[in-house]
Amino acid sequence: MAQYRGATETSIPKMGQITKTILEVNQEKLPEGLLSDYAQKFYGYGRWGAPIWFVGIEEGGGKDMQTIRDRLQTWAASGQSIELADAPAFHLASKNAAWHQPDAKLQSTWKQLIRMLILARGEADTDDALLHYQRTQLGATTGETCLAELLPLPSPDRNTWHYPAWSELPWLQTRAAYEQKILSQRISMLRERIEHYRPRVVIFYGDGQLKHWQRIIGAGTYQRPIADKLIAHERNGIAFFVTRHPTHPDLRPTADNYFREIGQFFRDHHGDRFMPTK
């Protein structure tokens, strides 16, 4: 009988061992329910009622699963339902302090969006001015910008897709399946939000995604006020613009001058749209 008890104790794991094993397995994948909710509900930073919108294809980053897990947990802690978060607070809470802490560095995409904005107001685009706006104002829920993304899940680039290793959700096994599932829904949502809140300016960055931007903007005549650099359209009093992506390889090392030229064009032709709301 003693031998039987010994065999039983060694063949059946203790409860603590079972719990540890389950936790280890869970840590190997992202939580499916939370990941799915985030992909369908989260759009970016700032507020829908902001007068100036910047819309990109997707956030960069997402090089490792823990970074995404931290982001999901931060979003869940806010109620798991918000469409837009406060950029400074959200990034600090999700352990990504690089862009908002006191010794922050300029983020390669954001700095060019800010450059256009402050030049459009007739202000100098010094690094100090860009960094101050990045740390305190860009995408803030009390600010004047909406920083939205067409696609919700961060990825290092359009050719990289880590999510099959991090999730068993069928629609995340390829980028094509992911975009097929959520792209049309998010295009419709962004268009509805624009129609409802009527921002003064919407700037889409990434002209390689023009077909998607046109589905949001709508039909009509598209102008090119700066040849090969800027696309423009106006509808119902809203000015829409499409630029190249700030990190596009073809812009290196001239990105600063490219966005400086566009900012100066905005100042000369659309300055009132970019001025702070009184």
Q: Which topology does CATH recognise?
A: Uracil-DNA Glycosylase, subunit E
Q: In total, how many beta strands?
A: 8
The gyration radius over C-alpha positions equals: 22 Å
Q: How does the overall form come out from the CA principal axes?
A: globular
Strand order in the sheet with the most strands: 3-1-4-2-5-8-7-6
State the helical fraction: 40-55%
User: What are the low-pLDDT stretches, counting only 5+ consecutive residues below 50?
Assistant: 1-25
| Main sheet makeup | 8 strands, mixed
What structural class do you assign from the helix and strand content? alpha/beta
Question: How are the elements arranged and paired?
Answer:
Elements: H1 2-11, H2 15-27, H3 32-41, E1 44-46, E2 52-56, H4 65-77, E3 84-85, H5 87-93, H6 110-120, H7 127-136, E4 145-149, H8 163-166, H9 175-197, E5 201-205, H10 210-217, E6 223-226, E7 230-235, E8 238-243, H11 255-274
Parallel strand pairs: 1-3, 2-4, 2-5, 5-8
Antiparallel strand pairs: 1-4, 6-7, 7-8
Features:
globular, 278 residues, Uracil-DNA Glycosylase, subunit E, 8-stranded mixed β-sheet, alpha/beta, disordered N terminus
